[in-house]
Amino acid sequence: MPPAHQNRLENKRPLFGTVATLMYLIAISLIFLVVWSVWQTRVQTLEQSKGATANMARAMAQQASDTIKSTDNILRGIVAEMESTETHRLKPPALHRLLTEIMQDQPMLSNLSVYDATGAVIAHSYPDRSRLASISDRDYFRFHAQSPDRAPHVAGPILGRITNEWVITISRRVNDQSGRFAGIALATIRVDFFRNYYKEFNIGNFGTILLATDKGILLVRLAQKETAVGYDISKGPVFREYMSKGPVGTAMLVANIDGTERLYSYRHLEQYPLLVAVALSKEDIFATWQTQTYQIIFLTTLLLLLLGIIGVRLVYMINAKDAVEYELRDAKEKLEDLNSELETQASIDVLTGLPNRRKFEATYKIEFQRAARNQSPIAIIMLDVDRFKQYNDRYGHPAGDECLSQIGRMLREKGPNRATDLPARYGGEEMIVLLPDTDLTGAIAIAEKIRLAIRALGIEHTANPDRIVTISAGVAACTPSQADPNLAAHLLKSADKALYAAKAGGRDRVCCEDD
Asked: Are β-strands 153-159 and 471-478 bridged in parallel, bridged antiparallel, or unpaired?
């Protein structure tokens, strides 16, 4: 090659290396911007949905509260009439006409009625003035007969004996001139009144709206899959969220009834024992976002392909094979280093320095298979910091993080010391210890050692009886068999049950379940 041509080629290589680097940065920047934009759009979509569901829940709660309050105002007037002096009190026929007239302006009501101290009807709002059966067997009647409380009593759902429709009852006690129980005034609100109101809300294809008592008894559930009135949802995710988080909240939950993941906003009425909730399905929330994301990815891919073609053409034009190979080798080495670093980071919990749940599950699978092959014992210890929520509430989340960090350091330095033992952070304030080749007796001894070591840290916790941080531990062990593929999951469940037993037994203790 002539020297001049060689010099020109050497001069072009740095320039084109700069161009190639610039194009590379443009591509990376484009990908970063697209990913960031798509993610921000997703976050905004979710936040908008949270606001929408919260507003709908607020509107439904207000409607239910207003309905009950207006009904109670009617009952106040009826009770005042029943407690007036004998000379001024309306007779049953006149009282019947009054109740019938009131009903004409109250579409939400199914019936208004007044009963004496025995539960027999005095007057009611049915047009034919037919006699009603005694209500002395109803819980709300017995409540007023036994309690001097003059506040309104909300109950239900109840299937009406005359109308055969589901209703919510609002009742008030009536006293005689001496203050003794003289009967009740009763109003029944149609459950369908709320159902028809909820149909006006747009909840998408797979959303849901529900109204329930604060005991977890379903009144209305508007969804693709209808659920009968009276269904018990007290064990469902919405009710559990309400019981644990308070009267108002929003959370992404999976329904027990149909298995659909939805964004729920719930609200408990301030004055009455009812809970309303509205939910938009995750599929509905992100449907438009997914479509837009696919379009953006398609266009970005086209741009990247075009950029790649230009890059390849430029590389071909300057014949920079050596430079490209060098860059590829360098990129490969960096990628391998990065992958190695990411793999290490992906298996370690940053806060505690312990292996994370992902690392534990991978190791547990291997060790359990080895124990099954060798017919050797294997044990699990599940640890949970006692009253950790109160700790965070009292000292703040930074102090809670420091508490977990100290416990993690103790497990690393003074916990199980065999090479095969694996302490890990399982989630939140919960730790787990894998003990291969360890029977139940050995695992209990190790768990007790850990419990005492954590007590010895002396971390202040005024919500605990001893005013220091303690842990509860559940221990389970077994000698697995290859014939039972579900035993690995069962061992974890056994340790978890033992942990709950330790907490139920008073905390700061070790409980076991021998499988």
From this structure: unpaired
- What pLDDT shows up at residue 515? 42
Strand partners, 384: 430, 472
Tokens representing residue 507 in the block: 């905390």
pLDDT at 309 over 50: yes
Per-residue buried b or exposed e for 98-115, using 16+ beta carbons within 10 Å of the residue's own CB: bbbebbeebebbbbbbbb
- Which stretches within 203-286 are classed as H helix? 237-245, 282-285
Distance CA 263, CA 255 (A): 10
**32 has pLDDT over 80:** yes
Write out pLDDT tens, residues 339-388.
666 666 678 988 989 999 999 999 999 999 999 999 999 999 999 999 99
> Do residues 379 and 475 lie in contact, with contact meaning Cβ atoms separated by under 8 Å?
yes
| Adjacent-strand bridge partners of 422 | 434
Residue 323 has pLDDT above 60, yes or no: no
Could you count the other beta carbons within 10 Å of the beta carbon of residue 175?
A: 17
How many angstroms separate the Cα of 72 from the Cα of each of 112, 150, 329, 356, 398? Answer: 11, 12, 80, 56, 49
CB atoms within 10 A of CB 420: 13
Answer whether the bond into residue 157 is a cis peptide, omega within 30°. yes
The dihedrals phi and psi of 509, each to the nearest 5 degrees, come to -155, 170
Which DSSP helix (H) or strand (E) runs through 166? strand 166-175
Contact 121, 107 (CB under 8 A): no
Give 24-33's long-range contacts (Cβ < 8 A, gap of 24+).
24/311, 26/307, 27/304, 27/307, 27/308, 30/300, 30/303, 30/304, 30/307, 31/300, 31/304
| Alpha carbon distance 403, 20 (integer Å) | 50
The two tokens of residue 473 are 């531990």
User: In 3-state terms, what secondary structure has residue 497?
Assistant: helix
Conformation bin of residue 354: beta by default, left when phi > 0, alpha when psi is -120 to 50: beta
Does residue 14 have a pLDDT over 70? Answer: no
pLDDT tens-place string over residues 464-488:
988 999 999 999 999 988 767 788 8
Give CA separation, 265 vs 212, 239, 245, 262, 439, in Å: 14, 11, 12, 10, 47
